[in-house]
Amino acid sequence: MRHARLQTRNRRRSPHGDIVVPEGAPAWITPPLIRETLATWQPFYRDSMTVDDAVTILKSVGRLFEVLSRG
Predict the structure, then answer these.
(1) pLDDT in tens, 18-69
(2) Residue of 23, 41, 44, 24 lying closest to 33 (CA atoms)
(3) For a 10 Å CB count at each end of the chain, is N or C smaller?
(4) DSSP string of 46-61?
């Protein structure tokens, strides 16, 4: 789940510290949600997770929720 880091021009600046939401991420993905995702999942990963890793997890969970909500 390692992804190349996005260049600075492809990121939205955040007032929430060092967390930056990558350009093109869904609007519901916010710096606090990324921070919480990293805090939740990091204990299960040997390597340090990146913002891109957290966004990948969140987008996957979002797709799962979308499929399950269709009934």
Answers:
(1) 899 999 999 999 999 999 999 999 999 999 999 999 999 999 999 999 999 9
(2) 41
(3) C
(4) SSPP-HHHHHHHHHHH
Distance CA 31, CA 70 (A): 28
- Report how far Cα 51 is from the mean position of its chain's Cα atoms: 5
H helix intervals, 1-71:
31-41, 51-69
Nearest to 52 by CA among 30, 9, 21: 21
Which band of pLDDT confidence, cut at 50, 70 and 90, is reported for residue 3? very low
DSSP conformation class of 15:
S
Contact 20, 33 (CB under 8 A): no
Return the closest-CA partner of residue 20 out of 50, 63, 59, 45: 50
